[in-house]
Amino acid sequence: MRVGCHRELLLLLLMAGMPAASFAGSQPQQQRKWPVPYRRFDYRPKTDPYCQARYTFCPTGCPIPVMKDEDVIDVYRLQAPVWEFKYGDLLGHLNIMHDAVGFKSSLTGKNYTMEWYELFQLGNCTFPHLRPDMDAPFWCNQGAACFYEGIDDVHWKENGTLVLVTTISGTMFNQMAKWVQYDNETGIYYETWTVRAGPDKHAVVWFESYECSKFILRTYQKLADLGAVFNKIQTNYTSITLFTGEPIYLGNETSIFGRLGNKTVAAAIRDFYYLFKPHQSVEEFFLNFLKIVDRVVLNHQFYLFYNLEYWLLPTKAPYI
Ligand SMILES: *[C@@H]1O[C@H](CO)[C@@H](O)[C@H](O)[C@H]1NC(C)=O
Ligand SMILES: *[C@@H]1O[C@H](CO)[C@@H](O)[C@H](O)[C@H]1NC(C)=O
Ligand SMILES: *[C@@H]1O[C@H](CO)[C@@H](O)[C@H](O)[C@H]1NC(C)=O
Ligand SMILES: *[C@@H]1O[C@H](CO)[C@@H](O)[C@H](O)[C@H]1NC(C)=O
Ligand SMILES: *[C@@H]1O[C@H](CO)[C@@H](O)[C@H](O)[C@H]1NC(C)=O
Ligand SMILES: *[C@@H]1O[C@H](CO)[C@@H](O)[C@H](O)[C@H]1NC(C)=O
Ligand SMILES: *[C@@H]1O[C@H](CO)[C@@H](O)[C@H](O)[C@H]1NC(C)=O
Q1: Which of 60, 151, 154, 232 would you call most buried, defined as having the most Cβ atoms within 10 angstroms of its Cβ?
Q2: Nearest to 309 by CA among 256, 236, 239
């Protein structure tokens, strides 16, 4: 699974360079609650056979074991920079990391790793497929939790972090496991982008991303709620951020691409995503990336798909 994650991070780097800035003149619209709450679902639907992973999701995954109540379990923060992959200092400079959490049972001596990532790689979660036989863009954007036995110490330690953050009881671990099940069943779609009004700390957040680091933070929060006391930890979580004016709600697949949908909006969305074909190679992606930047800067537009709904983000090139 690490291969998949590395790939993820490469794309993240590319997207991180996307220029954008806050836009003052967005149209007034009905009052919304920001950030838009991430939508949870009743259950996880089967994935469509059209979606084919290049790297099998969670190949060595196993069910979360039931621990003895009296067990004492070490919890580790696992973080590795992605610059290991290819792009040297550049990624290191951007501080892009992959996050996971480790557990070690003192009764059995066994250890485990848990992470959350895309079922069909990041490109497919970030941009849809445009299929000739379908009007609506087609998404392969599920993400899920993966739990497996073992911690690859060398991988995490050598260039990243492997630190003990807390120690929990077997009871707490088992409660956490129930929550992971719930979280995994109901939080289904990967959301790549964080979208904010500007780089300022106090700027409004329009959308929160939903990816690997968010899962780790939720897990820590759950353990804290269950009574775990954490060692002081410094965390630098990164996410790929777009700075835009107030998002404009466009609708869902049916309301836009259905019979009664607005054909102009439907065509604009397809046109926009045409630039982001997920099948392309890294080199193609680089070339298209320039077009994308151009498009986003010149047209001040980015179409975001979030909670299975489409939004128009009014982006604007930075003032010189
Ligand atoms: C998804 O992404 C992977 C890797 O980028 C690619 O091999 C695969 O064909 C893509 N498409 C689908 C439909 O999953
Ligand atoms: C989460 O859901 C995915 C998809 O159904 C599944 O493959 C995976 O094993 C689940 N993870 C855990 C930790 O149960
Ligand atoms: C996890 O278990 C493996 C195999 O026993 C061992 O090599 C590794 O050091 C352990 N790591 C931690 C953090 O406990
Ligand atoms: C750590 O970084 C060095 C230098 O970039 C690299 O050669 C090495 O393979 C990395 N280690 C691991 C375990 O990925
Ligand atoms: C987090 O970022 C700060 C400031 O950029 C840096 O000094 C610190 O070493 C980073 N910590 C980790 C764990 O990467
Ligand atoms: C799509 O939006 C329409 C109009 O707002 C709504 O009636 C419909 O239930 C929505 N469909 C889905 C699948 O959410
Ligand atoms: C379709 O949407 C565009 C852009 O929001 C708008 O200008 C146009 O009036 C709409 N057309 C119809 C038929 O609703």
Answers
A1: 151
A2: 256
Category of 157 on φ-ψ map: left (φ > 0), alpha (ψ -120 to 50) or beta: alpha
> For ligand 4, is residue 6 a contact (CB within 6 Å)?
no
Which has the closest alpha carbon to 203: 12, 24, 15, 17? 24
Ligand with smallest separation from the Cα of 7: 1
Q: Which ligand 2 atom is the nearest neighbour of the CA of 57?
A: 7
Instruction: Give the number of the ligand closest to the Cα of residue 60.
Output: 2
Q: Where are the alpha helices (DSSP H) in 108-211?
A: 121-126, 153-159, 170-186
- Whether 98 is a known active-site residue: answer yes
* pTM, 2 dp: 0.84
Residue ranges of the alpha helices (H) in the chain?
A: 2-16, 88-94, 121-126, 153-159, 170-186, 212-225, 253-257, 263-274, 282-299
- The Cα–Cα gap between 126 and 137 comes to 12
Instruction: Take residue 63 and report the two structure tokens written for it.
Output: 């069910």
Active-site residue, 140 included: no
Query: Is residue 264 in contact with ligand 5, taking CB distance under 6 Å?
Result: no
Q: What is the pLDDT of residues 289-308, one digit of tens each?
A: 666 666 666 667 889 999 99
Q: Indicate if ligand 6 lies below 6 Å from the C-beta of 255.
A: yes
